[in-house]
Amino acid sequence: MTLTFDDAFEIEIVSCFYRVGRKSYVSEKYGITIAYLNSLIRKPEYSEVNIKKKTRSLKKISRYREIIQYFEISNDRLATAKKFGLKLDEFDHTLSKMRKSIFYNSENYNDVISYLNGFRQMVVDNYTKEPTRKNNELLMKLEIALGKSVKDIKFEYEID
Q: Domain containing 145: what range?
């Protein structure tokens, strides 16, 4: 599951409530109504256990961003590996995995990719039956999300 900005904000609100335990404080801090806070708390995906998992995932992805940013600035594999405790022999593979996690905004990017590939087949079938503008846009967005370039997509599906 990928997280949007709104998801991250809602996770922050609910985790603050679980940490503090006072609805009035959370409502005042984030400028939301108590009714909205109650609706968030009632959602099954915002249970205390799920919030802890999502918070851990967000922290891990932000750490990945920090590592990649440090590497791009220093451009030194050895220094980056030493500073962040990474194995030098697996450095490129690890960095690639981190970049994919950041791109898909999910630790389990393989699940996201497999979901998108399953959805891709339906979109391609629909596009071959009816090559409308709407289907074309959906296909383009999906293929870009899977990492293809616009040029490759246009060539593969013969799009002008």
A: 111-157
